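Researcher: Let's walk through a ligand-bound prediction step by step. First, I give you the protein sequence. Second, the SMILES string for adenosine-5'-diphosphate. Third, you return the three-dimensional complex as structure tokens. Ready?
Model: Ready.
Researcher: Here are steps one and two:
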Amino acid sequence: MHEFLHPIRFLKTVGRVFFAFLGATGKLAIFTFTSLMHALTPPYYPRLIGQQMISVGYFSLPVVGLTAVFTGMVLALQSYTGFSRFSAESAIPNVVVLSITRELGPVLAGLMVAGRVGAAMAAEIGTMRVTEQIDALVTLSTNPQKYLVAPRLIAGLAMLPLLVLVGDIIGVFGGYIVSVYKLGFNPSTYIINTWNFFQVDDLVSGLIKASVFGFIVTLLGCYNGFYSKGGAQGVGAATTMAVVSASILILCSDYFLTELLFTK
Amino acid sequence: MTSSTPKIEVRDLHKAFGPKEVLTGLNLDVGVGESVVVIGGSGTGKSVLIKCIIGLLKPDSGSIRIDGVETIGMRGKDREEVLKKFGMLFQGAALFDSINVWQNVAFALIQSQGMDHNKAKGIALEKMAQVGLGPEVGELSPAELSGGMQKRVGLARAIATQPQIIFFDEPTTGLDPIMGDVINDLIVESVRDLGATALSITHDMASARKIADRIAMIYEGKIIWAGPVREIDSSGSDHVDQFINGRAEGPIKMAVRG
Ligand SMILES: Nc1ncnc2c1ncn2[C@@H]1O[C@H](COP(=O)(O)OP(=O)(O)O)[C@@H](O)[C@H]1O
Ligand SMILES: [Mg+2]
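Model: Step three, the predicted complex:
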């Protein structure tokens, strides 16, 4: 019989993996809790929070804007192909504004920011860990979670909704461009239709999602960096882990958030 | 507290990483104002010892007293108070690369003592001058400095808060012998000026002889010999003799793989 298939060994392996998983989840939960406590109690670092907000928000604008404009354009084009088969072209503005504000705006921005910001945070904090800069913070009477993690979490929570708001507008504009200049829609009808279909609830639910995704991205970036070990290779692994785990968690939590926000 | 209370008192310290036992019942005293150097081979747990004392690592068992007060298990405000007594020069200097040199030196003054920027910069430049760095270096980024200069900045940062206890982790490793000696002199000078207690770890015997009042040798997780620096050549310990003379033959067997 193959080693792995031996029932006792197999159970042992399952048990080990299960407990390792529990351990890792617990560690992340404690890290999340203590980081939030540090974010809520003084000293605060307004300068660092500002720096992180610029780095998370402002410098992600090009990436998120580009993603949004092409998504809006593709949405218009794809739904035209589908809807023209049963003469429902007029639903295009509806499809575009609904999909962007509710779903694609926050999710795609979250994924792009995971690649851009989450990776950078894991790499920066991971390098600080392996070069003992985090230990140095402690010896200088500064709590590393307060100094490094809390400002990043706050920036993620606060800036992602703003980014997504801008992305939503750009995305809808992308749909408008394609519909008007390629599919021959009347510009004012398109805008009026978009406005009529637009729901504040949809927008707000998307922005709530965005905030959660911003938290996920920055949390996993910080967490993986904070506990990285083993030199340059360890930092590389932490960076990869930060992006992969944040992306998966964004997609999973998106489902549950959607259920929570829309199924009444 | 009497004058005979050691500044640092380590008793029966144990620390393992998984199955790997690094410290196995280590005892060490460092008197007030004394400079003790712990020598030992690479990977023998010297850094782990210092990190346990500072509280960066949690020992499995044992006792660590600072000024007679048990610090293991200390948290919150008490721990912060103890940390304020410490300064440390890290092996790789561990300068923060997101801020410039003077901000590194002034870090604890500004961030944890809340000192005004101009005043903190003044003190930073003063400390930098003490370790032989001109004010023009203050505006550079740590990445622009040579290894020796980074160590000097790390030293200036460690002494900026006038700590009572300073830890030096391999202060001369990675430096050429002359720069190593310059750093040794600076360490001796700054510890004397502060009247601080110093605990250093190194495998560089020249450095140990220069900065130590007392030397202790760590082997297999314990201090196997400790004595005044002048007695190191007549320690009567084969392990110490082998180490200070750098011989491959002797009771210490290096794990070639491991
Ligand atoms: N955080 C850690 N996790 C696991 N093992 C560690 C850790 N820190 C140190 N070790 C191990 O402990 C041993 C002693 O390390 P260290 O104290 O750094 O040696 P040195 O005497 O060269 O300073 C080494 O074998 C190292 O692999
Ligand atoms: Mg070491």
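Researcher: And what stands out?
Model: DSSP finds nine helices and no strands in chain A. Chain A touches chain B at residues 43, 128, 131-133, 135-136, 138-142, 147 (CB under 8 Å).
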